[in-house]
Amino acid sequence: MTVPNKRSQLSIVSFVECVLVELTHEEVGAEYVSANVWGTKRTQFIAIDDNGEMFRKRHYDERLGWHESTVSRRAVREDLITRLTRTSSLTTDRSHDVPVDNPDTFSVKSARELRMH
After folding, report:
1. Which helix (H) or strand (E) holds 18?
2. CA nearest 30: which of 64, 57, 67, 69?
3. Rounded Cα distance, 3 and 1, in Å
4. What is the pLDDT of residues 81-111, one digit of tens each?
């Protein structure tokens, strides 16, 4: 999915709820990617318990490297809804002299594939 998108708020909330169910029951993770003049940023969420209440949040910034933390299901839900309902892409922010033309993206991938980044 790209950001911005034409989905309604209610549609995004439903979509995020479906993603959270998949993250809990399958070996998959969610990834949000944006880029700017300073490089690519990735935020990944992977469930770390069988109940789907706790997630590993992995954030990558080309300047700073990887940072990991543990967050609640509620935090993941709020984060994803906020990101996916943006009216503009952080990637295409025109406040920089050299804007990036590709929009932010969101995807669900195998957890193994996410760990390879």
Report:
1. helix 9-25
2. 57
3. 7
4. 999 998 876 655 555 566 667 789 999 999 9
Yes or no: say if 46 and 111 are a contact pair by the CB < 8 Å rule: yes
User: In whole angstroms, what is the distance from residue 63 CA to residue 116 CA?
Assistant: 19
Two tokens, residue 114: 């996410």
In the three-class reduction of DSSP (H, G, I as helix; E, B as strand; rest coil), residue 55 is classed as: strand
Q: At 58, list the tokens.
A: 């992995």
Backbone angles phi, psi at 89, to 5 degrees: -85, 135
Higher pLDDT pick, 74 / 91? 74
* Tokens encoding 32: 């949000």
Residue pLDDT, tens place only, 4-60: 888 999 999 999 999 999 999 999 999 999 877 778 899 999 999 988 899 999 999
